[in-house]
C-alpha cells in the first residue's frame, strides 16, 4: 500500500499484478487469497480511473466467491460492496443500491448490527442514498452508524471520527450548516489530538471545515483552512499526489470565488499539469481540471482559449462516458454556451444538434457535476478495505 499511498499508482499496479499472478500460479484461480488479490487489483484500477478493468475483476471475484464460499460469506459480501462502489462510480446508482443492500443485509445476518464491517456497509449505503438524493434516508443510516461506533469504539476512534465527518457532509448538503460545523469541529479537534496536524484524516477534516466556512460566506476563514490542508498535503504526500492535486484545484476555486483570478489560474494550471502527468488525460480528476480552467478563462474573457479546453473536455467525456451520458451532454452544453458568446453560432448549433438538444434554448451555463470543485473530500469513496494477502502468496 506504500506506493499507492504516495500516489505512485503505476508502481502499485505493477506490484499488485505480480501478487495476483503469483497467487494464481501457486494457489489456483479460486483460492481465497487469489480472489483477494483480484479485488485489490480492481481497487487500484478503479483509483486510476480504469472502471471497465476494475469491473471485470470485481465481477470475476464475486462470481468465484459465490461459487466457492456462498452468498452470505463475509468475503462474498465484501466483493458485493466492491462491485457496488464501482457501479456507483460509473453512475449506475440503482445497480449499486441493489448490491449495497444485499451486502448490508448479509452482514447484519452473519456479523450482527454492531460489527465494524456492518457499520461500514451502513455508511456505504448512506452515501449511495445521498448520491440518489434521498437525504433523509442517508441521514438515518449515517446516524445509526455513528451512534453504534460511539457506543462500541468510543468518540475518538478513527472510524467514529470518519462517521462524524460523513454525517457533517450530509447535514451540509441538507443546508444545516450549523449542525455540520459542530460535527466538523468535533472531528477536527479529536484528530489533531489523536493523530496530529499532518495526518491525512486530519487534513481531510481541515478541508471539510474550509468548505463549510466557504458555504457560510466566511471566505477568509475558508482560505486559511484550505491553505493549511494544502500545505500539509504538499509536505506529507508530495505535489503530485492525487489528494494534493484535488486540494490545489479546490483552493483555486476559492480564489476564483474571491475574485483573485490570477491566483486561481496559477493553481488550476498546476492541478491540470499534475493530473495529466500522474493520472492521464481521461481521468475524471483531469477532466474536471480541464473544465475548471476553461470556466476561469471564460470568466476572464479569453474565449478562444476556453473553447479549446471545452472541446478537449467534451472529447474526453465522450470517450470516457459515452455520447449520451449526462456528463457528456453537460459538457456539450458548456461548449455551446461559450461558442455563442464568441459569436460562433453555427458551430454552437452543430454541437447542440449532435448531442441531441435544442440549440436555440438558452440554458444556464453550469459546472460539470463530475468531481465538482468544492467537494467535501471525506474519505472519497467508501470503498472496502484492501484485503490482506499472506506473504506466502506474494
Automatic annotation (TrEMBL):
Pfam families assigned to the protein according to its UniProt record, in alphabetical order: TPR_10 (PF13374), TPR_12 (PF13424)
Top-rank taxon, per record: Eukaryota
SMART domains (alphabetical): TPR (SM00028)
SUPFAM superfamilies, A to Z: TPR-like (SSF48452)
Region feature (Disordered): 373-394
Stated name of the protein: Kinesin light chain
Amino acid at each position: 500500500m506504500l506506493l499507492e499511498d504516495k500516489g505512485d499508482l503505476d508502481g502499485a499496479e505493477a506490484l499488485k499484478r505480480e501478487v495476483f499472478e503469483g497467487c494464481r500460479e501457486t494457489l489456483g484461480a479460486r483460492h481465497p487469497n487469489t480472489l483477494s488479490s483480484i479485488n485489490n487489483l480492481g481497487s487500484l484500477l478503479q483509483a486510476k480511473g480504469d472502471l471497465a478493468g476494475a469491473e471485470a475483476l470485481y465481477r470475476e471475484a464475486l462470481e468465484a466467491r459465490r461459487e466457492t464460499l456462498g452468498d452470505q460469506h463475509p468475503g462474498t459480501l465484501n466483493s458485493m460492496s466492491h462491485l457496488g462502489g464501482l457501479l456507483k462510480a460509473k453512475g449506475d446508482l440503482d445497480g449499486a443500491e441493489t448490491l449495497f443492500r444485499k451486502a448490508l443485509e448479509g452482514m447484519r445476518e452473519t456479523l450482527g448490527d454492531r460489527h465494524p464491517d456492518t457499520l461500514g456497509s451502513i455508511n456505504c449505503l448512506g452515501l449511495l442514498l445521498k448520491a440518489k438524493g434521498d437525504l433523509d434516508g442517508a441521514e438515518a443510516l449515517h446516524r445509526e452508524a455513528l451512534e453504534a461506533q460511539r457506543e462500541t469504539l468510543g468518540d475518538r476512534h478513527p472510524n467514529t471520527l470518519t462517521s462524524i465527518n460523513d454525517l457533517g457532509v450530509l447535514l451540509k448538503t441538507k443546508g444545516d450548516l450549523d449542525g455540520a460545523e459542530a460535527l466538523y469541529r468535533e472531528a477536527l479537534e479529536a484528530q489533531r489530538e489523536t493523530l496530529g496536524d499532518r495526518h491525512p484524516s486530519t487534513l481531510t477534516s481541515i478541508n471539510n471545515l474550509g468548505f463549510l466556512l466557504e458555504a457560510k460566506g466566511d471566505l477568509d476563514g475558508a482560505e486559511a483552512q484550505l491553505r493549511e490542508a494544502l500545505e500539509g498535503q504538499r509536505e506529507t504526500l508530495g505535489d503530485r499526489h492525487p489528494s494534493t492535486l484535488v486540494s490545489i484545484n479546490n483552493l483555486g476555486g476559492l480564489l476564483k470565488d474571491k475574485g483573485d483570478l490570477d491566483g486561481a489560474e496559477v493553481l488550476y494550471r498546476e492541478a491540470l499539469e499534475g493530473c495529466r502527468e500522474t493520472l492521464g488525460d481521461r481521468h475524471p480528476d483531469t477532466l474536471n481540471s480541464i473544465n475548471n480552467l476553461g470556466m476561469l478563462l471564460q470568466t476572464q474573457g479569453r474565449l478562444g482559449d476556453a473553447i479549446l479546453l471545452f472541446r478537449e473536455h467534451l472529447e474526453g467525456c465522450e470517450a470516457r462516458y459515452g455520447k449520451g451520458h449526462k456528463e457528456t451532454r453537460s459538457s456539450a452544453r458548456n461548449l455551446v454556451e461559450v461558442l455563442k458568446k464568441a459569436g460562433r453560432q453555427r458551430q454552437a448549433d452543430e454541437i447542440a444538434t449532435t448531442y441531441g438538444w435544442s440549440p436555440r434554448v438558452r440554458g444556464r451555463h453550469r459546472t460539470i457535476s463530475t468531481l465538482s470543485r468544492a467537494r467535501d473530500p471525506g474519505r472519497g469513496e467508501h470503498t472496502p478495505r484492501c484485503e490482506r494477502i499472506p506473504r506466502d502468496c506474494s
